[in-house]
Amino acid sequence: SPVTIDTVNTIVLNVRTGAGTQYNKYDKCPQLKKGYKVNITGVTKDKQGIQWYGILLYNKIVFVCSKYITL
């Protein structure tokens, strides 16, 4: 599938192990700083209908809230 390169648009963005705030922060990279480029691998929604992007970090798919990513 195509990989999209997009940018973090908030000061600090939490990286989660699943799509939602109930999931733990990713231990290898718990936060990304503004301007960091991410490779989006997929899109999903949490129970509240909020959209999350799957991104690839350290050979693992982890999740960030889509509203903090500029396409």
Provide a brief overview of the structure:
This protein is an all-beta fold and 71 residues long. The chain has strands at residues 4-8, 12-14, 31-33, 37-45, 51-57, 60-65, 69-70. It starts with a strand and ends with a strand.
Largest sheet features? 5 strands, antiparallel
| Strand arrangement in the largest pleated sheet | 6-5-4-1-7
Structural class: mainly beta
Proportion in β-strands: over 45%
Terminal-residue CA separation: 17 Å
Helical proportion, percent range: under 10%
Number of strands: 7
Q: What integer is the average pLDDT?
A: 91
Q: What global shape is seen?
A: globular
> Tally the helices: what do you get?
0
Which stretches are low in confidence, meaning pLDDT under 50 for 5 or more residues running? none
Give Rg in angstroms.
11 Å
Order of secondary-structure elements: EEEEEEE
